[in-house]
Design brief:
By secondary structure, the protein is α+β, with helices and mostly antiparallel strands. It has twelve helices and 25 strands. A seven-stranded mixed beta sheet has the order 10-9-6-11-12-13-14. A seven-stranded mixed beta sheet has the order 19-18-17-22-23-25-24, with helices on both faces. Helix 9 crosses helix 10 and helix 9 packs parallel to helix 11. The longest helix is centred in the first third of the chain and has 18 residues. The radius of gyration is 25 Å and the shape is globular.
Length: about 525
């Protein structure tokens, strides 16, 4: 087969980038803008030994899995945020569930892994909006199509302000006046910023020349309290006429039923691709907003990580609690004792489990389990998040939790070394003897790493402590499968996993897995 050749094929699968996958003459062919079940005619644009890329020429027969409810004009214009936007919601969750199972089989080497049906969103969620408007955090890149420096050093925008999302596989910003995934508060803030920039001739960051003021708009919305935080990432210390912008943001957010409680300048002068800098300047309101999960209240600051889908977050945390052995309900909805490898730890006494909450963020998962745990020890590398986690424990009257700052793989390794040696120091550091004692007794580890997964050193440190069960929360099934394989080499047995659809319409899927020590 060669470039320019026309082929007819049936789409069988989808890639992680949302492209349809078909086969012709033994060649795997990627076809954009297609979904499984489509019969298409495509033109090959690049041909390799085992695969080829193409462009869609004709949709001969559309699939029953094609969505007719996702009519976003910005998606059609190239916004790269919704890779599964052409699929019905039912087809999306089925595909994600299958992908989790296949990655555990192929990458972890598991034969017929036990994967429960995916936890999908329900029609009644989000006040009847179901899998729409579910995101509590919006991250908008800001652009004006570049800037130009006139005589006298005057910097001007080349185009109109665009506040939106990147086009697929590029850093071109698609201006988005509405996004079906974002909260109404986030879209109102984006509209206010767009109008303000146009009225006051505010420049946007131009990565080519490394000049311009506004880089990103980040909006955090607390769905259960109605509080909103607006973070303006800027290449400088301030914004001209900032008070006008604050008033515009306040009015716009109030009009859609929310309350603007915090406005923050985040200073990022770095020419790199990092979205936020380290310095935050609160210019209006409070340094944090508050949100609730179940009976708990959490403070959220500019840098702190917090799950973006509050409805599914509760379901995810309930599954974590179950896998920790702190819930009477099993994955199949029945009640009773756990099967082999899932013996429930004693609780409500001095033998209640000690839980390691690794990559803990602001402490939400551990604190959610704290009422039935003996002690929670959280480790997180972001200092601001650790402050929030300890503060969240205080806010909720939780005294059996403690959070420490550092890289999880390094900190846990040091404490594991000290616990093994019986000394109160490791790697030349004097460590907290009380934490050493508690970590030595840990029998559950909750792992919630970033997309790259866990460092091998962390998994080895967990294994060296003899932790009886590991509850692994993953946002990337591929790195989960890789780590499951490594944990198998460290004498941990995969028991089961439950996918949770935290990110409808996107190619992403969350998954929680249970592993236990070999008996």
């Amino acid at each position: 087969m060669q470039k320019g050749q026309l082929v007819e094929l049936t789409i069988e699968d989808m890639s992680n980038e949302g492209q349809g996958i078909g086969r012709a003459e033994g060649l795997v062919i990627f076809v954009p803008d297609t979904v499984p079940g489509d019969q298409v005619r495509a033109e090959l644009t690049k041909v390799k030994k085992n695969y080829a890329f193409s462009r869609l020429v004709e949709l001969i027969e559309p699939s029953d899995a094609r969505s007719r409810e996702f009519d976003c004009e910005f998606f059609e214009r190239g916004c790269g945020g919704c890779g599964y936007g052409r699929l019905t919601y039912e087809a999306q969750v089925a595909l994600k569930e299958r992908q989790v199972r296949e990655k555990l089989q192929r990458l972890a080497g598991l034969n017929d892994p036990k994967v429960w049906p995916i936890v999908a969103m329900k029609e009644e969620d989000n006040e009847g909006m179901g899998p729409f408007r579910y995101r509590n955090k919006a991250q908008f890149p800001v652009s004006t199509g570049g800037i130009i420096t006139r005589k006298g050093g005057v910097v001007e925008n080349l185009g109109e302000p665009a506040v939106g999302f990147y086009r697929a596989k590029s850093h071109e910003v698609v201006d988005c006046t509405d996004c079906y995934l974002q909260s109404l508060a986030a879209m109102a803030a984006a509209d206010a910023l767009r109008r303000f920039m146009a009225e006051d001739n505010i420049t946007a960051w131009d990565p080519k020349w490394e000049k311009g003021l506004l880089r990103h708009l980040i909006v955090k919305t607390a769905f259960n309290t109605g509080e909103v935080m607006v973070i303006l990432v800027i290449n400088g210390k301030g914004i001209p006429n900032a008070q006008k912008l604050i008033e515009m943001l306040d009015d716009a957010i109030y009009d859609v039923g929310y309350s603007l409680e915090s406005v923050v300048f985040n200073v990022n002068r770095s020419p790199g691709k990092s979205i936020m800098g380290e310095e935050n300047i609160v210019i209006a309101g409070k340094p944090v907003i508050r949100e609730t999960v179940g009976d708990l209240t959490f403070e959220i600051s500019p840098h702190s990580f917090y799950q973006v889908n509050p409805v599914q977050m509760k379901r995810l945390y309930d599954k974590v609690k179950e896998y920790c052995g702190l819930s009477d309900e099993l994955s199949d909805g029945t009640e009773g004792s756990f099967d082999i490898g899932r013996t429930k730890p004693e609780r409500n006494n001095e033998n209640a489990p000690v839980i390691l909450d690794l990559y803990c963020g602001v402490g939400t998962i551990g604190l959610y389990c704290a009422n039935e745990a003996g002690f929670i020890i959280g480790i997180e590398s972001v200092k601001e998040a650790v402050v929030d986690a300890n503060r969240n424990a205080v806010i909720n009257g939780i005294v059996n939790a403690r959070y420490i700052c550092g890289k999880a793989e390094e900190m846990l390794g040091e404490y594991a070394e000290a616990a093994d040696s019986g000394k109160s120091e490791a790697s030349g550091k004097v460590l907290d003897s009380e934490l050493i004692r508690r970590i030595r007794c840990a029998n559950i580890a909750i792992l919630d790493p970033p997309r790259a997964g866990c460092k091998p050193e962390l998994l080895q440190a967990v294994a060296s402590l003899g932790v009886q069960r590991i509850v692994y929360v993953s946002c990337d099934p591929a790195t989960l499968a890789r780590d499951v394989k490594l944990l198998g080499e460290l004498d941990y047995e995969f028991q089961e996993a439950t996918p949770v659809d935290m990110f409808p319409w996107t190619t992403e899927v969350e998954c929680v897995a249970l592993l236990t020590q070999y008996q």
